[in-house]
Design goal:
alpha/beta; Rossmann fold; 5-stranded mixed beta sheet; about 15% strand; globular
């Protein structure tokens, strides 16, 4: 059956359930107002979650959660929960790297094109979707389970921390979130103290592909993380364009002290740049301050724990403690 037929059947099933429930209420004649304050009131433990596409009311804290972005998986893991379903891009090894251990979950397709049938098969009580990728399918997701939409893909570090608190509220883990945020703030403060001793702090972060180089600006997640620990991201940006295409001429004009390159492309454009005199005249190149970094950790995971790993990894690379980790 095609996707439209499947959604149609789901809508019909939901309508039939609602009609039957209504009939049951009328025959008993004992229905109670949602505002009655009864101990049996199903709305007594309801939670209203504000998100990028409005408000979503949950009858109770969610326990069976499907996430359509990896940062949301990290947030749940940081709260002591494993998502029931993850849009993992068919990369279970990346999810194990994110968790720091092997985890069990149901793959529900790719982040760009999640599989609605697989999501429905998990029978979640909450779906967490991304503003950039999934806003157009929110109505379909809502037919499966209550859905909240948060800005991960194009979100900043600040937004990722706000998302963490929203997710904690949705799953009834606000106390745990407060403790984890306090721990996180201490870790980031310690990293900033380490960075304060550096004489050179101007950095460039980017993702290299065969067909181009995208700088991660001050408005990006990784770019803002390095700003948070006291480094100076030389590419300023906006929320509308956090990852601008950046050519070698622009990089030359910026001439950063350090360059962090995230790539998993064996034919990345930077391989060609390395053959050019203009690249080799860059301050970072001449001083051996060009660092290759893990693209998953630096640009894809985008949760509370990856921020700590990025900051520590950056300082370890600068101080010569690691070469590529």
């Amino acid at each position: 059956m095609n996707m439209q037929q499947w959604i149609k059947r789901l809508l019909i099933a939901g309508t039939c359930t609602a009609v039957l429930a209504g009939c049951g209420s009328n025959t008993t004649g004992t229905s109670t107002s949602a505002n009655s304050g009864s101990a049996d009131d199903p709305l007594a433990s309801a939670i209203t979650i504000k998100h990028d596409m409005g408000e979503t009311v949950l009858k109770e804290p969610a326990k069976n959660v499907v996430v359509l972005e990896w940062s949301f998986a990290d947030d749940l893991l940081a709260l002591g929960m494993t998502p029931t379903g993850i849009a993992d891009d068919n990369k279970p090894e990346a999810m194990n790297k994110l968790a720091g251990k092997s985890i069990e979950y149901m793959p529900v397709g790719e982040r760009e094109t999640p599989d609605l049938e697989k999501i429905a098969g998990v029978a979640p009580d909450l779906i967490i979707a991304d503003t950039d990728r999934h806003s157009k399918i929110k109505e379909q997701l809502d037919q499966i389970a209550p859905t909240i939409v948060l800005n991960s893909r194009k979100g900043s570090y600040k937004e990722s921390m706000e998302d963490f608190e929203v997710i904690a509220k949705a799953v009834g883990k606000e106390d745990e979130a407060k403790q984890r945020i306090a721990q996180h703030n201490q870790i980031m403060a310690n990293l900033k103290k380490q960075a304060d001793s550096l004489k050179e702090k101007r950095v460039l972060i980017g993702v290299a592909r065969k067909d181009g180089f995208n700088a991660h600006t001050t408005a990006s997640y990784a770019g803002a993380v390095l700003q948070e620990i006291g480094l100076d991201n030389v590419v300023k940006g906006t929320s509308q364009d956090p990852y601008p295409d950046t050519n070698l001429e622009t990089i030359t004009s910026l001439d950063p002290d350090m360059i962090f390159i995230a790539t998993d492309d064996s034919e990345a454009i930077t391989n060609e740049w390395k053959k050019l005199p203009v690249w080799n005249n860059l301050k970072a190149v001449k001083n051996n301050h060009v660092y290759m970094v893990d693209r998953d950790i630096w640009t894809r995971f985008r949760g509370i724990t990856p921020a700590e790993k990025i900051g520590q990894n950056a300082l370890d690379l600068i101080n010569g403690k690691v070469t590529f980790k």
